């Protein structure tokens, strides 16, 4: 799997204002900005991202995923 493929899987079911995915084919990092995260705790946000990957999280297809999540307002407030 490529970073673009993983990004497409996430964005297929989670509307994202911004997304960055990087990794080596098994170990991934994702930065996801979505309005759907509003009012959710960090754990709930991560569960929402994991849910987009379904069974891929239980196989070696996605061995590890590090996630940073933001609402659009939180992302806009980040130092650039």
UniProtKB/TrEMBL annotation:
Which Pfam family, any one, appears in the UniProt record?
BolA
Gene3D superfamilies documented for this protein: BolA-like
Q: Which InterPro entries match?
A: BolA, BolA-like_sf, BolA/IbaG_stress_morph_reg
Lineage, opening ranks:
Bacteria, Pseudomonadati, Pseudomonadota, Betaproteobacteria, Burkholderiales
Task: Please report which protein family the annotation says this sequence is part of.
Answer: Belongs to the BolA/IbaG family.
Protein name, entry field:
BolA family transcriptional regulator
């Amino acid at each position: 799997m490529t970073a673009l493929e993983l990004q497409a899987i996430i964005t297929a079911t989670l509307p994202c204002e911004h997304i960055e995915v990087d990794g080596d084919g098994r170990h991934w990092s994702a930065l996801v900005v979505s309005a759907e995260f509003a009012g959710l705790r960090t754990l709930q946000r991560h569960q929402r991202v994991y849910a987009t990957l379904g069974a891929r999280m239980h196989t070696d297809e996605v061995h590890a995923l590090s996630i940073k999540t933001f609402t659009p307002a939180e992302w806009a407030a980040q130092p650039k």
